[in-house]
Amino acid sequence: MATGHAPGNPIPAVRKHPPVEHPVVVIGPQYLAQYPVELAISTKLWTLGENDFKVSDITGTLIFQIRTMHRRWEAFRGESKEEKDLLFTAKKSKLFQFKTDLDVFLANNKGDVPDFKVKGGYRESSCSVFLGDSNTMLAQMHRRHTLASTILATDSFGVTVYPNVDYAFIAALVVILDEINADRSGED
């Protein structure tokens, strides 16, 4: 799902929430920081088929890219599609929703209780990621509306990932959320 390598250290964001109790690692420990990380996620609008999402720090330095393929909401390690390399799955919390809420299950979770929840109104341009059914917030996303993004036909998201949270995983969730909402709005 993610290509590239983790940089030395992304630019820190202003800390607004206490850190999580234990590190949250899904993609890999190289994507953990001891401080909040601000990310910018962008993609071209009006593409046919697959989308490429670029994940940068707030200075514009590219950290990695995510390519979506065929609307799959399963994330695998590398290019694999084998069950042993499954990282997580994401699904809508409810069949019918006015806003998109996601339940996210790690590969080893065979139960009904999600490991993570994505809550909020994507069409309202924001969402939050929580640890399971708790109120422990891991990240927040908001859509950026700028004159440049309108002119260049790009979509851009600002993402704040809190300390000790796998920011590649959070970026992947934002991409999945974007793809789900593109399906719902009839885009693509």
UniProtKB/TrEMBL annotation:
It comes from Populus tomentosa. It holds the Pfam family LOR. InterPro entries: LOR. The lineage of its organism: Eukaryota, Viridiplantae, Streptophyta, Embryophyta, Tracheophyta. PANTHER family: GTP BINDING PROTEIN, PTHR31087. This is Protein LURP-one-related 15-like.
